[in-house]
Amino acid sequence: MSIKIKTFASLSCALAVSLPFGFASSAQAAGANAISVKDAWVRWLPNNLPAAGYATLVNASDKPVDLVDISSNDYGDAMLHQTVSNGSSQKMVMVDKLTVPAHGQVSISPGGYHVMLEDAKHKVAPGDTVHLQLKFSDGETLDTPFAVKSPAQTK
């Protein structure tokens, strides 16, 4: 996966101030128990603006595992970004991997790492569920449901 850098100053500020609201489910690959996903949700924005996905990744294995790729049949682009603060401004930078420590977890949450979702392939609205395929360095791929929530539902 190539590294792309995108800056969405006003959108990143809006995303950074949203508060997490969990989706109570988990996804696991068939026959593999190393990685699981919990509290997966998407903060939907109107007018075909990019959405942002959030979740907690849990690693039950003895070795760190990297999230190395994200795709979706519901969106044309799904990219892992990190919000970076430069004092008085913020920008989003695409990252090529996110390490989930052994016997640990990582939060993909507002103001930090998030999944930028662009170019919805069909109408997506609050109340829907979209699926993201999360690919890991150990070969696992999780087809993970994300609950779509309006900005008002995330406060």
Features:
155 residues; mainly beta; Immunoglobulin-like; eleven-stranded mixed beta sheet; 1 helix; globular; disordered N terminus
Overview of the structural elements:
The protein has 155 residues and is mostly beta strands. It has one domain (9-148): Sandwich (Immunoglobulin-like), CATH 2.60.40. The protein has one helix at 9-17, and strands at residues 26-27, 35-43, 51-59, 65-71, 75-85, 90-94, 98-100, 104-108, 113-120, 129-136, 141-149. Strands 1, 2, 3, 4, 5, 6, 7, 8, 9, 10 and 11 form an 11-stranded mixed beta sheet that branches. Residues 1-29 form the signal peptide.
List the helices and strands and how they pair.
Blueprint: H1 9-17, E1 26-27, E2 35-43, E3 51-59, E4 65-71, E5 75-85, E6 90-94, E7 98-100, E8 104-108, E9 113-120, E10 129-136, E11 141-149
Parallel strand pairs: 2-11
Antiparallel strand pairs: 1-2, 2-3, 3-8, 3-9, 4-7, 4-10, 5-6, 5-9, 10-11
